[in-house]
Amino acid sequence: QSLTDPASLAQCFVKATADTPMMAAKHKAGPYKIAFSNSLYGNNWRTEMLNIASAYVKQPDVAQHISSFKIFNSGNDVSQQISQIRSMILSGYDAIVVDAASPTGLDSVINQAVKQGIVVVAFDNTVGTLKAINVNEDQTEMGRQWAQFLVKQVPANKTILMVRGLAGATVDNDQVDGAKSVFKDHPDLKLVEVYGGWDVGTNQKVTADALATHHDIGGVWGTEGATGALQAILQVHAPLVPMTGESDNGFMMLATENKIPATVIGQSPALVAVAIRAAIATLSGQSLPQSANVPLTALTTDEMKPDVDYFPKLPGSFVTNISIPQCGVHIPVTDVVK
Amino acid sequence: MPDAVLRAENLTKRYGGITALEDVSLSLAAGEVLALLGANGAGKSTLVKLLSGNILPDGGSIAIGGEGRHLTSPRMAFEAGVATVHQELSLFGSLTVAQNVLIGREERGRFGHIREDASLRRTEALLAEIGVPDIAADARVGTLSLAQRQLVEIAKAMSFDPRVLILDEPTSALGLTDVHRLLTVVRGLRAKGRAIIFISHRMEEIEDIADSVTILRSGRKVGAFPRHSFTRERALELMLGETQQQLHAVPPPPAPPDSTPPILQVADLRLDGRLNGVSFDLRPGEVLGLAGLEGQGQKDMLFALFGLFRRGLRGDVIIRGQARRASRPLQAIAAGLAFIPDDRKNMGGFMFLPIAHNVTITILNRLRRFLFLDSRQEKAVVSALIRQLAIKCSSADAPLGSLSGGNQQKVIAAKWLAFERDIYLFCDPTRGVDAGARETIYATIRDLAAAGKGIILYSTDMVEFPILCSRVLVFRGGKIAGAVSGAEINEESILALSFRDTGTVAA
Amino acid sequence: MSKMRDRLGEHIGPLCCAIGVIAVVALYAAYQPAILSAFGIASLANASVTLALAALGQTVVLMTGALDLSIGSEISLVNCFAATFMGDGTTSIVLVVIASLLIGVLAGAINGVVVAYGRVAPLIATFCTSFVYAGISLTLRPQPGGSIPDSFANLLTGNWGLLPFSAVLLLLAVLVIWLPVFRSRLGRFILAYGDNPDSAFASGIPVRRVGMAAYMLAGLFAAIAGLFLAAETTSGDPSIGNVYTLNSLAAAVLGGVALTGGRGSMIGPILGAILLSIILNVLSVVGISAFWQDFIEGGILILVLGLAGIRLLRAQSWTSLLGRSQS
Amino acid sequence: MSATTDLQPGRSGPRLSAAVRRGALPWLILAVVYALCVIASADFLTWHTIRLQLIQAAFIGLVAIGETLAILIGHIDLSIPWTITLTGIFATNLYAAHPHEWVAFGAAIGIGVAVGLVNMLGVYVLRVNSLIWTLSINLMLQGLTLIYTNAAAPTTVVPPAAKFLALGMVGEIPMAAVLWAVCAVIVIGALRFTPFGRAVYAIGSNELVALVSGIRLGRVYAAVFITSGVMAALVGLLLSGYSSQAYLGMGDDYLLPPVAAVVIGGSRLAGGEGGYGGSIAGAMTVILLEAMLITLNVSQGEREIVFGAILLALAFLFLGRSRR
Ligand SMILES: Nc1ncnc2c1ncn2[C@@H]1O[C@H](COP(=O)(O)OP(=O)(O)OP(=O)(O)O)[C@@H](O)[C@H]1O
Ligand SMILES: Nc1ncnc2c1ncn2[C@@H]1O[C@H](COP(=O)(O)OP(=O)(O)OP(=O)(O)O)[C@@H](O)[C@H]1O
Ligand SMILES: [Mg+2]
Ligand SMILES: [Mg+2]
Predict the structure, then answer these.
(1) Is C201 a pocket residue for ligand 2 (Cβ < 6 Å)?
(2) Which residues cross the membrane (chain C) (predicted)?
């Protein structure tokens, strides 16, 4: 079966580092009882992600492995999430999929779960404990690829505006570390960093502020919410410069419309499906890297196709990369937008 | 005077541009009751606040027991032996009597924990000592009547076992019996050698209790004499700065003829246990007094008429022939009623807002031109009323809270005079008001009556009934125990009715 | 008779919460009987204790008629500090615990100085200091991490038979801090000051020191909460406390504490905190979608507040009705 | 908290009349903060930069209209963030389905009025503390928005009028600022010169006295909370126009900054004193402070410390002091 086929698993789950150990669990006969402990909810990415989770487990080839699937939401409250996971341990789930409220805070409860023979897969906001399988997209690599795109496009001696995400978040630090590993080889480029909070409005505001004080901006290194940065540029009629961003529908629409050289790579909400797949594969006896990365797909402006890569009829806040073909995850857009 | 317990010299206090007190000196011996007299805003309370460490003087000195003191907080004053009952009560409604009385000086156990039982017993002993054993030491102060709270406040001051006790208008909220009780307590304290400063606007009380009298006017000391050389006329002259025309000489407004149809009819009004079937009529031009001992339903009667009870009121209120029983003030106002409350702080005025805005709050719609307020007309209305009631203020834009108590009371009256109504409910309108302002308010009531308004007057000061009312209803137990009218209105007849059932008539 | 009704009225908040807690736990147990096991009870207790501690701290400040919007940041601060500096040795643990408590008290003292001596309105003062404390946590630990020794973690989060250690911690906090304070003059002063600040001043109560003390106590409770979170998560996180600021207010109000000051108990906020904490859990267990959670949580709050309001509406006179919300 | 303040000493403070202090100091604070901005970056001298800040300030300022009124009657409105988000998403969705401007604006006003009425119900009729009631309503609105967006994702179709109001220019002046100025004149006029204004101050000073004086409390409460709801809803539309989309969480920055703007603007949190004039300066101060800190390019932690400390210093030095 394709879900647990070792070759296709190897294609999807790439070791994060060369020395990442492989992990296996005791084989169990399916179908499995799986719980999903989600933290934050209420932004677009999470909403799509929750819809994808519900849709994915209903796809026939997945459904056959699953006897019950339940979503728990704790909000951004670590204590709450710990107690929910404890209650999952009590309920005898076979696997727990986690999008964590804290990268370190859940470690001890996850260790407890693993000790009870439960397979734990964390994705997106992953966890520190080595007992859980972490599935993510390589944020450092993402930041690096964005930066590589920019250093090719931006003339020397210009300023690059880095519209970062949320201060203190691991993802933010990883992305910026990756970018800086590229920029440090280009000392002629000046860097200005602002925090856009991964939010369109905040991006727009901080970009507008930065544009007002820096007039030699030659490129914008943006992440989630870069739609706002682009809008700020359009709004103040600043020169259109090369940009990067995540797979926001709005960003892609504006970039294609204004023919702005841009590249998008995005944290996919379908990671949840990949994580569920990892749980099923592990339970059925396959071994996976303890920390796995899903291959990235970058799209540049000239490659973006309407209604395939982006959706002119959908809201700008829609996160477009709802499928991860390398992992066999295909989610129809109608399952995500109801 | 080597035996002075308290000696204040050249005390001065300024508030911004206003000099509230200037160069005032006084001294007080053990076993002496010093009465402080003065019109509203003369600076009595300011002096009290200085002596009790609530405010700091801008000049002058205070010595207690011969020792110079710089009182920077109330606590220092307590420690120096000065306890004060302020004009505005300072109690905690959600604490019990005992917890209030002993606040900060509770009986404590080995671990510093409060011993509630011992505190309760100490409070009970204190209450018994000052002669009010009927107040339960474990009752919540929020449930007590105003008079009872006043007595609790005195117990609280007494619990310090002070050398000097200051009472700032302790009787203004009390009915006759409670006043007598309080004066007895004061006499007892004097006998024990306490020095007492006593403030009141009621001359009878001063004559009754004072050993010496000090008179303030506009922040200055204008006279001091021993009891035996004190006369009312002299005091009034010094207080008010002009020879007063003969007070009380004006007869009460005549009763309207019986044929006049009543403007207000109350029939069998009831409110769970507080009003037990009250019926009466009020005619235009009549001043109807509500008398009786404290808490017999007179005040509830006024509150009920003005719609301050939201539920539970039964019976009929008929105004100009229409049923107008109100369950909210707006309905009462629409029916033509005005209400001048006694509790000016909580019900009377907006302390932070300008005097002018206080006065015109009831007539905003009249002052409106299209959408906006006509400020010229507003100014005219306000300054006319300030003049009419002789309100002492620096300007109409000053906040109400910066006026002395009596002047605040006048502003509240002004607010309803601006808004002409048919029936005026006066609830102890002269509480804490000086003799001059009192005359102004009396004159105002008479004028209203002459203009054909119906007036109901509740007062704790029995002197007011004979000089203002053509008829007085005496309340007892939420019912009308009887009525007196015309020349029969006097303290004796009212008290007789107040006490009729028990047959005892207090002095 | 009416006295009894008065008493009942006073305890209506805690009473409603208690009934709510029982109902919610019963619902939980119906869906998942294992919750009544030792492990399950410890889960419930651990999930509620942080909020209960935060709510106790908030209640002390509410009783003075003020409020503390910095409780969450104080929790984060202590949490980050402990996770950064706590080593494996017993001495290190003891020293860091003491230092953490002192940091909480100090943060509270700063709030107290600003409010009581600086005369800045509590809402705005603690709003500002919350930024300062959050900034310090973020500087201390730009990203979550650090470590907490297992011995300390187990000490606070384990269980002894059916008795969770977290519940013992809460009990200790009540016995060692709350009860002594509210059996002493300080507690009386706090209530008196909240009831009527002007009277308190005129009665010779050291009003500023009382205001300070209330915030310091709040800081102390927040510090204990921060330490407990550190033990529970064995790490420090600069944003971990954020949820507790408003939830502590909600828990206190649910528990019948008046925001106008002068009234409040300890049992009410604790019950309110337990109710708020496990309700979310139960919603998930019962299978209610995430999208409905906020709505239902808000709805419950509004229902409880509204019910209390309807009780008030039966007030007989306007003076008591408007007097109450005034103060 | 009523009038016995004269019992307490020790409030010497600057020897300025209260009115002058409340009226002028917010602008002084603004001037100081602006000077700091200019020191941080000379770009703050350009009209271009100022214009950008002005647009941001207009959003806070418009929301602060309702907040000022709520604070003047002695309450607070913390239901603004999700009123903004719900309106942004719901009204643009509706507009996408029925592309008439009045549909979007009508829906926004409808939501604003509804939220205002619910707030009035809790705060006035049920007499629940406004802080906790409006916060709970905010939570419910958040839930409502999530439930709604799960069923219908937000669109990118934004009414042009909203875009114009948020981004358009009248000559060199942003349309948002013009709208703000118009609303400000109306509010200041209403507060100073109409019976409604008097009633607002009266209720904030002492509700019982207002009742006894025949003020229609319910109407004033309704007007205040409905204004607040409608202004929040309007800003929700404007923000959608500004970002060309409505999205979840778009109102999150509008919980406490409007309150800060009102307090820096010199209104007393307990009600009865202050006005909207100061809130204008307050809104600009809050926005400039944020912009300045962004310009300084310091770490997030340090920025939060500095922001909190400066705001505290402003509150401490001049205004927002409690009467206690
Ligand atoms: N806090 C204050 N601010 C400004 N002026 C004040 C303040 N307190 C008192 N005053 C002024 O000081 C003067 C003296 O007031 P005080 O309260 O001492 O009068 P009083 O003699 O006690 O009057 P009453 O008989 O009405 O109580 C008054 O003119 C009053 O307006
Ligand atoms: N509520 C208040 N309003 C006005 N002034 C006050 C108030 N509270 C305190 N003060 C002023 O502060 C002084 C000291 O007050 P208090 O005794 O309450 O504080 P404290 O903590 O003992 O201060 P300290 O540490 O200086 O001894 C008082 O004398 C008074 O001048
Ligand atoms: Mg006085
Ligand atoms: Mg002291």
Answers:
(1) yes
(2) 12-31, 37-57, 69-87, 93-113, 120-140, 160-181, 212-231, 243-261, 273-292, 298-314
Residue of chain C whose Cα is closest to the Cα of D268: C121
Structure tokens at D185: 């004149």
Domain that holds residue C122: 2-326
Would you call C317 and B310 a contact, using CB atoms and an 8 Å cutoff? Answer: yes
The CATH number that applies at residue C125 is 1.10.3470
Ligand 2 pocket check for D4: Cβ under 6 Å? no
Which value, to the nearest 10 degrees, does the dihedral of the CA atoms of residues C281, C285, C290, C291 take?
A: -110
**Residue partners of B313: CB distance under 8 A and separation at least 6:** B269, B270, B271, B304, B325, B327
pLDDT tens digits along A14-28? 998 889 899 888 888
The CA distance from D324 to D312, in Å, is 18
Does the pLDDT value for residue D322 go beyond 60? no
Q: What is the location of CATH 3.40.50.300 in chain B?
A: 4-247, 253-336+421-507
Q: What's the fold here for domain D42-322?
A: ABC transporter involved in vitamin B12 uptake, BtuC (1.10.3470)
- What span, in angstroms and rounded, lies between the C-alpha atoms of D241 and A316? 12
> Does B503 have pLDDT greater than 60?
no
What CATH number does the domain located at B4-247 have?
A: 3.40.50.300
Higher-confidence residue: D314 or A198?
A: A198
Q: Which residues of A touch D243 (CB under 8 A)?
A: 200-201, 204, 227-228, 231
Amino acid at A286: Q
Q: C203: which chain B residues are within 8 Å (Cβ-Cβ)?
A: 74, 90, 103-104, 156
D149 lies within 8 A of chain A by CB:
yes
The stretch B293-297 carries a mean pLDDT of 79
Alpha carbon of B85 to ligand 3 centroid (Å): 11
Residue C61 has pLDDT above 90, yes or no: yes
Give the distance from CA A133 to its chain's centroid: 16
CATH class of B253-336+421-507: alpha beta
Domain ranges of chain D: 42-322
Q: Which two structure tokens, joined as six digits, stand for B463?
A: 């002197």
Which residues does A contribute to its contact with C (CB < 8 Å)?
38, 41-42, 50, 70-80, 82-84, 86-87, 89-91, 102-108, 128, 167-170, 173
Spatial CA neighbour of D215 closest among D233, D230, D202: D202
Helix (H, G, I), strand (E, B) or coil at B370: coil
Per-residue pLDDT at A168:
66
Determine contact: C314 vs chain B, CB below 8 A.
yes
